[in-house]
Amino acid sequence: MATKSKCFDKPGNVKGFTLMEVIVVIAILGALAALAIPRFTGVLENSQEQTDLANIRIVESAIELYQAEIGDLPATVDSYNELITELNHVGYIKNSELLPVSNGKRFSYDAATKTVSLTDDEK
Fold first, then answer.
1. Which of 3, 38, 63, 113 is most buried by its number of CB atoms within 10 A?
2. Does the keyword Phosphoprotein apply (predicted)?
3. CB-based burial of residue 60 (10 Å sphere; 0-12 exposed, 13-18 middle, 19+ buried)?
């Protein structure tokens, strides 16, 4: 008497997901990712800009301290890099390479108004 192979038996109550259910879940996850990634990118760009603005306030505060304690900045300080070097030299800023974190941006220094601004990189 031949026995029937178990691989051909009809499954009874087998638990699991159908192919259609798996496809629907993957489609929903794809849609959520498509919505979340651009939003995350926007948040990242905004945080980079806010960091740059905070760094500008730090540099401008250092300029004010320098002027209050030492006097006017030397006339030779007419660029952002020279400003940071001078402020670092006298101890008002610890980091001598304070660069913007936003892509395609740079800090510029206006010696006439003694202000620092964030501008588009001209490269």
1. 63
2. no
3. middle
Name the percent of the chain lying above pLDDT 90: 33
Q: Bridge partners of 111?
A: none
Quote the pTM value. Answer: 0.65
Q: What are the CA-CA distances from residue 30 to residues 36, 37, 44 (Å)?
A: 10, 11, 21
**Residue 27's pLDDT band (cuts 50, 70, 90):** very high
CA–CA separation, 105 vs 56, rounded Å? Answer: 13
Per domain, the residue ranges of the chain are: 28-120
- Which residues lie across from 117 on neighbouring strands? 108
pLDDT tens, position by position, 61-113: 999 999 999 988 888 888 898 999 999 999 988 887 888 888 889 999 998 88
Long-range contacts of 101-108 (CB under 8 A, 24+ apart): 101/48, 101/51, 101/52, 102/45, 102/48, 102/49, 102/51, 102/52, 103/48, 105/52, 106/80, 107/52, 107/55, 107/56, 107/59, 107/80, 108/80
